[in-house]
Amino acid sequence: MLSVLMSLLNLVHRCGVHAGGACGFKHVNQYPFSSMTSCGNQPLFKDGKGCGSCYQIRCTGDKSCSGKIETVMITDMNYYPVAQYHFDLSGTAFGALAKSGLNEKLRHSGIIDIQFRRVPCNFPGLKINFHVVDGSNAVYLAVLIEYEDMDGDVIQVDMKEAKSGSWMAMRESWGSIWRMDSNHRLQGPFSMRITSDSGKKLVANDVIPANWRPNTDYRSFVQFS
């Protein structure tokens, strides 16, 4: 595990409370995120391809640190140039690193040393979710992909229309949102093929129905293992 710097600064409320952020994840204060989230600088955020990745962290640079290991997920971007690897934690995640009764004291410590390592993500009871984003229409489809076990992040997404034998590569729009700009009316249902950071591929057949609607979740029956 590497020793790096972590900063609370003034970004904790943006990273830990507001939905969306630079990754597009919503309701980060609810299960399965449960506010155990972090902004990451570019080596962690990776231009959006690091969205959803999970890290074990332990703080060591403050007397209020418990030394207990906690797991956080990258859900947003932090641009502050503090260190090579910079986690800007939510208030909940920052406080979870503290000794009993010292949560607030640790939260006001500012920049502290931590140890971290990347670990597989685990979303018990959940399958991969495809959320059709507002603004999608017959020739433009934008999809937020979330709750991927193992790597947690996605580096490529392909989609296949109804009665089509060919996959079409989607473009990364921003964060965990991928889009298809089409020169014809897209015909559902749509199958989705996602590729994880380690190169594993998973197909969700006909996961988005023909009568899909914007701002709607479509839960698949597939999950990485």
How many separate helices? 4
Strand order of the largest sheet: 1-5-2-4-3-6
- What's the domain count? 2
Beta strands, count = 15
* Global mean pLDDT: 90
Largest sheet: 6 strands, mixed, barrel
**Sheet/helix structural class:** mainly beta
**Between the first and last Cα atoms, what is the distance in angstroms?**
24 Å
CATH-defined topology of the largest domain: Barwin-like endoglucanases
Order of helices and strands: EHEHEEEHHEEEEEEEEEE
CATH superfamily of the largest domain: RlpA-like domain
CATH class of the largest domain: Mainly Beta
Q: Which of globular, elongated, flat, extended, rod-shaped describes the shape?
A: elongated
Q: Unreliable runs, pLDDT <50, ≥5 residues? A: 7-14
Radius of gyration, in angstroms, nearest whole number: 19 Å
Family: Belongs to the expansin family. Expansin B subfamily.
Pfam families: DPBB_1 (PF03330), Expansin_C (PF01357)
Subcellular location: Secreted
Main location: secreted
Question: What would your notes on this structure say?
Answer:
There is one protein chain. It contains 4 helices and 15 strands. About 4% of the residues have low confidence. 9% of the residues lie in helices and 38% in strands. The two termini are 24 Å apart. The protein folds into 2 domains: 118 residues, RlpA-like domain (Barwin-like endoglucanases), CATH 2.40.40.10; 91 residues, Immunoglobulin-like, CATH 2.60.40.760. By secondary structure, it is mainly beta. The strands form 3 sheets. A 6-stranded mixed β-barrel has the order 1-5-2-4-3-6. A hairpin with a 2-residue loop joins β11 and β12. InterPro entries: Expan_Lol_pI, Expansin/allergen_DPBB_dom, Expansin_CBD, Expansin_CBD_sf, LolPI, RlpA-like_DPBB, RlpA-like_sf. Belongs to the expansin family. Expansin B subfamily. It is found in: Secreted.
